[in-house]
Structure prediction request, 88 residues.
Amino acid sequence: RVILPRLTSCFECSLDMFPPQKVYPMCTIADTPRLPEHCISYVHLLLWPKVFPDTKLDTDNPEHMKWIFERAKDRANNHNIEGVTYML
Prediction:
């Protein structure tokens, strides 16, 4: 976004235009997941870097997303959580 002095709002003034970020406590993600989002966050933030330390996750890569989905689904099943889908 281009910010022009005296013509546009500053970056801090325009933060309300961005969608709110969902952040979950790391202890919940790692130890006590209760939502499908917790399972996906676990795989994305903790498992991917552990299994593929030299590969950056590419959310536009179908193989990467399939791997994330499958691992998140496995974690959800282990914790009796329903609702992990590609749409999340």
The chain has a mean pLDDT of 89.
